[in-house]
Specification:
It is a single chain. By secondary structure, the chain is of the alpha/beta class. The protein has two domains: 337 residues, Alkaline Phosphatase, subunit A; 64 residues, no CATH class. The protein has 15 helices and 23 strands. The strands form six sheets. An eight-stranded mixed sheet has the order 5-4-12-1-13-17-2-18, sandwiched between helices. Strand 21 and strand 22 form a beta hairpin. The longest helix is centred in the middle third of the chain and has 31 residues. The chain is globular and about 65 Å long.
Length: 539
């Protein structure tokens, strides 16, 4: 061999060796995680084919992320109301396993306080865990390495003495209050032009709010969501500048589109009121359901619908304004999401960072005469879920198999090479969920270790069944259950009443098939599947 070829072979070997070492080191470095959770965000987003959604939703940043990851077409909340959903998600356990069924603080629950939250588990495995905004409903800062802004539902309208609903909202809907009874743009409040320096918009702690500077959209304080987006983007840049090899877990919680639905006028302008399409509703759709049998008319979802109807001579006008505000808030939070994702994409972390976007639950927009969360139907239970996992997730994939929030914890431990030993001691409980890695690798497959459907639980509450003791109200047999497979939604109320919807033929859940004897076998099969999920054998 001549000296020239010998030298080429020598340097080629060295190059390949160094490349191998680089590949090994990169592959062995644990990936970072960015976990983004919105509040009350239903399927009014773009980027997931086949979903109902809303044809006028404007979410280019969510859509962009979906094209680089896997979107889950059938992802569901296990508890479609804030507190139990979030404690279930961040501990990876069903409320039925822990007994944390509704509004109780998770860290006072005997089983959950002896189990590691997602953040604690990642921290114990060498991650720097930073967070800001609404993640856990009942936050506990010591589960984080660093935590910035607590949850802030503002801006709220302020009349100089107290928070109130937006002055443009008519009564009696206005009387619901400054949070759930309020929607409208920041610029449209009459309090901004009343020459009273004590009125306007406020943000901050509920009992100690601070006036928000607002002259116009270019001269104002940032909203809480904007503060969280900016903090997260800056924190990512600081991670990059530090040169620290330690992986990070970054949690960002955005409030919108949770009420009060207040964002800048520019987002309302992107959804002109006279062009807003109403949600697709069926007259008297609630008549073949049983929710009204178990909850009084004063229950929020039923009351908000009936109150909105009373507040407008033309109900369609009211629903159109409400829908416009929701769409505007969704577009606004999409920009906040984009700011965080862009910070990753413009950093050295792009190819080694897992990004998750989801919500704690959905939101009914008038379906079945219900406006709120915490219903057993598709609109409340369904959530957006997109996971980008470089080197694992199939870019642009859409998974159709049902999954739920309880599956996120084991999915992230799997992707990051962490064990699933999440109990602090023998009083803790193991993870209930299953890794969704198979759907990231091949979104079209239906085989995994998890169940065939997603299970959601509605707490029985005390507004109707006052005949039950407190102990009985927390028994699993007295709760309401909703089970969603790829084709069916099966609902069983605490008194045995049932609803059954065939999503293949009836995607809006308009026809309850449960009383049709032809579907008895389908119901039995779905009930047995539901029972096979943890701790439901007593049903």
């Amino acid at each position: 061999m001549n000296p020239k070829n010998k030298a080429i072979m020598k340097y080629t070997s060295i190059f390949l060796f160094l490349l191998l070492i680089h590949t090994f080191l990169f592959a062995s470095k644990k990936p970072n995680v960015v976990f983004i959770m919105c509040d009350d965000l239903n399927d009014y987003i773009t980027g997931i084919e086949g979903q109902a959604g809303h044809p006028q939703s404007i979410t280019p940043n969510v859509n962009k992320l979906a094209q680089s990851g896997v979107a889950f077409e059938k992802a569901y909340s296990n508890h479609p109301v804030c507190a139990p959903s979030r404690s279930s998600c961040f501990t990876g356990t069903y409320g039925m396993s822990s007994g944390n069924l509704f509004w109780g603080k998770w860290f006072t629950n005997e089983k959950l306080k002896n189990s590691k939250t997602m953040m604690e588990h990642f921290r114990d495995h060498g991650y720097y865990v930073a967070g800001s905004g609404k993640l856990l409903h009942h936050n506990k800062k010591d589960v984080w390495s660093e935590f910035k802004h607590e949850a802030d539902y503002g801006p709220h309208a302020f009349n100089g003495e107290k928070k109130v609903a937006h002055p443009d909202v008519p009564k009696p809907f206005w009387d619901i209050g400054p949070t759930d009874g309020s929607f409208g743009s920041l610029e449209s409040s009459s309090y901004l032009n009343d020459n009273n320096p004590k009125t306007g918009w406020v943000t901050g702690p509920w009992n100690n709010p601070k006036l928000m500077k607002f002259k116009n959209d270019l001269d104002r304080d940032r909203t809480p969501d904007e503060k969280n987006a900016e903090w997260a983007a800056n924190r990512i840049r600081k991670f990059a500048e530090s040169g620290d090899e330690k992986p990070f877990f970054l949690g960002v919680g955005f409030i919108r589109p949770h009420t009060p639905m207040h964002v800048s006028q520019k987002y309302f302008d992107r959804h002109p009121l006279d062009q807003v399409q109403l949600p697709i509703l069926k007259k008297d759709d609630h008549l073949d359901t049983f929710y009204h049998k178990y909850f009084r008319p004063t229950q929020k979802g039923l009351r908000y619908y009936s109150t909105l109807k009373k507040s407008y001579t033309d109900f369609e006008e009211g629903l159109r304004k409400y829908t416009q505000a929701y769409l505007a808030c969704v577009t606004a939070v999409d920009e906040c999401i984009g700011q965080v994702v862009d910070a990753i994409d413009n950093s050295p972390f792009k190819d080694n960072t897992i990004i998750v976007i989801t919500s704690d639950h959905g939101w009914n927009m008038g379906q079945k005469e219900f406006i709120f969360k915490n219903s057993p139907w598709e609109e409340s239970c369904r959530i957006p879920l997109i996971i980008r996992a470089p080197g694992v997730a199939q870019a642009g994939g859409v998974a159709k198999h049902p999954v739920s929030l309880v599956d996120l914890y084991p999915t992230l431990t799997d992707l990051c090479g962490l064990d699933n030993n999440t109990k602090k001691n023998d009083q803790g409980i193991p993870l209930d969920g299953h890794s969704m890695r198979p759907f990231l690798v091949n979104p079209d497959q239906n085989e995994w270790t998890g169940p065939q459907g997603a299970l959601s639980m509605i707490f029985i509450g005390d507004s109707f069944r006052k005949d039950l003791s407190r102990e009985e109200r927390f028994q699993l047999k007295n709760q309401h259950w909703s089970y969603r497979t790829e084709r069916w939604r099966y609902i069983q109320y605490s008194g045995g009443d049932e609803e059954l919807y065939d999503h293949l033929e009836d995607p809006y859940e308009w026809e309850n098939l449960a009383l049709n004897p032809e579907f008895k076998a389908v119901k039995i099969n779905l009930l047995n599947e539901m029972k096979s999920i943890r701790s439901l054998s007593e049903l």
